[in-house]
Amino acid sequence: MEEPPRHLLQAFLAGRDVSCPACGYNLRDLPAAHCPECGEELVLQVGVAEPRQAAAITGLIGLAAGAGMSALLLAYLLVQVVVYGRYFSRIDRFFAINFFGALVEGTALVFWLRHWRSIRRLSPNARWALAAACWGLTAVYFVAFSVRVR
66: closest CA among 101, 95, 94, 115? Predict the structure, then answer.
């Protein structure tokens, strides 16, 4: 990608209050292509007004729902055993399904967040397919919990 000429950046900032994206310093009438406050290099570029993030957010919510549910159920188990000293039948199965759910969904959630930009660059169909897969993973966890822990 070709870098735009610096004079265009200076012309854009002439008489205009614009904050540095890194530190918030007012760049009005900036004579150079670096922020005087933080030293970051500045470029003038075209960007999407509203990035299409619906699929990425949908997938994030799906994974967070499964990870959150399994973590809450593990916390419930901890309170029942440690605080109240209660043991119930199938406690091993309850722990295993929720621990595995928290591990899988939590790992997928971290992966999703670390690859957020890459996911947003995919085609719309690929993004929605991944979002559906996230909800599918959570649905599998909920079904496994419902079937295995009765």
Answer: 101
Per-residue pLDDT of the chain (150 residues; tens, 9 = 90+): 565 677 888 899 999 999 998 899 999 999 888 999 999 999 888 877 667 889 999 999 999 999 999 999 999 999 999 988 888 778 888 999 999 999 999 999 999 999 998 998 899 999 999 999 999 999 999 999 999 877
Element of type H or E holding 26: none
Which DSSP category does 137 fall into? Answer: H
What residues are paired with 19 via a beta bridge?
26
Question: Which among 139, 128, 125, 133 has a CA at the least distance from the CA of 108?
Answer: 133
| Residues 6+ positions from 15 with CB-CB distance below 8 Å | 28, 29
Per-domain residue ranges for the chain?
1-46, 54-148
DSSP 4: P
Rounded to two decimals, the pTM is 0.67
Residue 66's contacts (CB-CB under 8 Å, 6 or more residues apart) are 101, 105, 137, 138, 141, 142
